[in-house]
Amino acid sequence: MNQKFYSLPEEKQRAILNAGFHVFSQNTYKNSPMREIAETAGISKSLLFHYFHNKKELYLYLWTFCAEITIEEMKKSGCYQQTDLFESMESGKNAKLRLMRMYPDMGTFAVKAFCEEDPEVCREIRGSMDRYIQIHASAKLENLNPDDFIPGIDLKMMYKDMYLASEGYLWEKMKLGNLNIDEMERDFSELLSFWKKIYLKKGKAEYHDD
Amino acid sequence: MNQKFYSLPEEKQRAILNAGFHVFSQNTYKNSPMREIAETAGISKSLLFHYFHNKKELYLYLWTFCAEITIEEMKKSGCYQQTDLFESMESGKNAKLRLMRMYPDMGTFAVKAFCEEDPEVCREIRGSMDRYIQIHASAKLENLNPDDFIPGIDLKMMYKDMYLASEGYLWEKMKLGNLNIDEMERDFSELLSFWKKIYLKKGKAEYHDD
DNA sequence: AATGAGATTGACCGGAACGGTTAACAGGGG
DNA sequence: CCCCTGTTAACCGTTCCGGTCAATCTCATT
Predict the structure, then answer these.
(1) Chain B residues within 8 A of A111 when measuring between CB atoms
(2) In the prediction, which pLDDT does B82 show?
(3) Quick one: which of A73, A170, A193, B107 has the most CB atoms within 10 Å?
(4) Measured CA to C1', what is the nucleotide nearest B45?
(5) % residues pLDDT > 70 (chain B)
(6) CA–CA separation, B162 vs A183, rounded Å?
């Protein structure tokens, strides 16, 4: 790719990346026209080809960019160091929402790229896929103190429930487009405090309930 | 559309519909080539055009087919008459899984069609959209007897949690493709019985636990 | 074996759109 | 005045688009 891309004003860089995320997330690799990406970004096709020499290069750039910024943001959020499960979920979710605010279609793009089967790109995608596998909380779960939670609860199922509901919420909003991040933040906190109230042993629940 | 389509052997009909669902769910309306649909269905492009006179007709047929069969299957499952919330969720989920087994890409297609903005079809889609709005359980919730559940629980939040987790699960599986319906059935029952154990008042929980 | 009706296809149409190139333009600084 | 950088319109050959149609192939009925 052309290094000059980086000297573009940030908002223009973002416009181009987002245009790519958008079109590639809506269509197969092969059926995603460069013209459409350029139009969405508000630049001419020629200029797009000036920064990214061909379609494949743009696609793969988007893929690695997406992997890197996601990992970076997740680390920065500190959700991996957190010991409290709910705190960790909260910071993880905050990171996701922050990413979503900057690059609304990046998540969908990642999922789609993950499943892309076009021989022109799928080898490269699968090759660097390990950079994107989620470090799930399975390890974290073993560090939980069962005494903090209501007696007899299946902690693995509890986490599964919370994880799936979070994903379900994200998906539910995403699929209808036009996402309002602030609203999502509120809804998420509401869910979290609901779970705390349900799952935590009495007396522990109020602990974090600002 | 050509009525002869209906006299095709059922499995061939399904192959064609599924091919349509697949391609249209992966691409925008405009970027979905008829050739690709025909290829996926294992027939020639000419034959596809023999049954559906043009692209728009096929697309809109898929849309109404999807709405009708979904409503039919949901009604048939009896999930709307059920008085027990968990029973109702179970039969609703069974209906969804049955549909998913027959038409794996129909759900994704519906979501995408729902958001389609191409002027060639979006008017018609939005016009008949009311056929597809979910009759949510909000009304049902008011009939619940709070005494059946653990004291002090927010029933609306409880339902939201369960609904979102179900959607999240479906989405989680769908996005990675290659869905194993039997496994999904098992996972779902597991989730349901977990919720029963958590949310139902002690003594009520074992009631339905075959 | 010949016939005729449907099912199914390959070859074809004009024109649009593809990925990609290039020559030219705009405009600000020296 | 010219160079430099960012930007684009116009263009390239090629492929693919939605859609048509005449020619097959299939096969039950004579």
Answers:
(1) 175
(2) 82
(3) A170
(4) C9
(5) 92
(6) 20
